[in-house]
Amino acid sequence: MSLRIAHIGLGPIGCAIITQIAARGGMQSVCAIDLDPQKIGKTLGEIAASDAPSLQNVSVRGDMEAALREIRPDVAVLCTSSSLPRVWPQIETIARAGVPIVSTTEELAFPSGPNAHFTAQLDALARECGVGIVGTGVNPGFVMDTLPVLLSGACERVEKIRVERVQDAGARRLPFQLKIGAGLSVEEWQRKADEGSVRHVGLRESIAMIAHALGWNLERISDEISPQIAEEPVSSPHLSVAAGQVCGMKQDGVGYQNGEAVIELHMEAYLGAPQSYEMTRIAGSPALEMRIDGGVAGDIATAAVVINTLPKIVSAPAGFHTMLSLPLPSFYRGNAA
Amino acid sequence: MSLRIAHIGLGPIGCAIITQIAARGGMQSVCAIDLDPQKIGKTLGEIAASDAPSLQNVSVRGDMEAALREIRPDVAVLCTSSSLPRVWPQIETIARAGVPIVSTTEELAFPSGPNAHFTAQLDALARECGVGIVGTGVNPGFVMDTLPVLLSGACERVEKIRVERVQDAGARRLPFQLKIGAGLSVEEWQRKADEGSVRHVGLRESIAMIAHALGWNLERISDEISPQIAEEPVSSPHLSVAAGQVCGMKQDGVGYQNGEAVIELHMEAYLGAPQSYEMTRIAGSPALEMRIDGGVAGDIATAAVVINTLPKIVSAPAGFHTMLSLPLPSFYRGNAA
Prior knowledge:
Dihydrodipicolinate Reductase, domain 2, homodimer, 2 domains, Rossmann fold
């Protein structure tokens, strides 16, 4: 029996998940919800610009609670916001309809800092409703937390973990290039960074997840962003950046224990980055350095991680989960008829 | 409260685990069992050649059942044999004493082929006794199965998985160098390979684990071994190999689906290998290639994987587990007082 999936939030990532499910097969998109009046009433085929037959008969609705109770999907994919406080009411509605949740909400991956109190709330809600809830994606959720944690499982001693994720942003979609501030002047970029609209959300969550897995008590997590300035003109299919303008960003998250930087997450995403890669280096015994040259493609992989997590959250005991508590991540083939 | 651990089987790996636990702290070795009359009555300090204070007061016993029922450890580490049929009676005794088990028995990592029937037997036994049972180590259990499976979790499509593990055997202990047949003539090596005493056990299990995780039905698994011949003289601190003699082995496990090789595990372990490394290449979308240059040190890492799995099997629901069903592997800090 193939999984019947509800889609809540039909932005770029929500749509990438829908088209990937249609292409992969063995699963069914049966319900779609968005608040945008421009989307309500359209088919998933129209919204996701796909002619996959399975998407032509599902129409977008705005009445989430009624739709979920009527259609009774096996699991919901929630892609509406990075902010846990903002998605909390949506999570409550979905869970109370008895539907397990996989969400791309970055702050849900491992609630920490001002969101730490949500962990107990989420777990109580999930148990009361008898469903599993988890936040995941490629980052946070995979390359900068789950993978480094797994590697620590081969160690007798871990002193420090450094993770690097460098992405040539030229190969990514326009919204991603805008999100990193490519094409802005340094002043514009700084203003957007200050107001929080240029920023990767998730380093704090990844650091908190790694620290929890290792049993480390961090006294402080820092998260700093800086612009990458183009030394020469550089362009992508979507936009052009003059020399002296911003072509992207660098961001560093650091977790401190006893005054020492024990977890360092370093990201670079800019047009013209020489090579995309993922790197995890564990200082300890054995010392390990893992590299994935070429990197893990962001949009495909986020959709893939979410979809591959669906059967795991459906089978998981009721409660709030993280990638630490679910079974080992793996590709999900679906159930072909 | 720190984990109280029983050690059953005090060969090189059993002892590596004991000394690592003593060095790491936050756990206690409270019980030790071996059948060798030469070992019974000695302290763990003597057996493991360690002056760690915690090992001087634990004496090796031969009466496994009585010792377990008397000492009531939280978990047992079982390191007696690669063969599942041979360890089955030991597993039964330990489980019936109510003690969860982590074992380095390679064939337990994912029972398959002639051992496939053990899966249901192990699960029934484990549930009846209310304990978790798992087989793991660095290989099988980590680098050639768990890690590739995790990476597949970022993919929307997996066509083929190739894993390579190349080890410069010169850096390993003497028993490992003997196990790969270093120093033998080609004829002697072939005779030992034919009788099964030169061979890595676990490729079949790793392939079956990967296939299960991906939902692939393999029609056949092959596992072939060949000698690596020294072109020039090569030596380690333990032994010397003349040109023309065997300096180690190569082994290839292949899983076939619809006539195609979809899982390829390639191992090389010989004196004079230019560089140790781990590599996993996934053909699919996104295509991924992960490398760990320098490799994952075998003996330290096998002990580390086993020890890091102890708290997970203690907390797991009763039943037979594999690395696929347990939560994400991670370093275990122990509970320092």
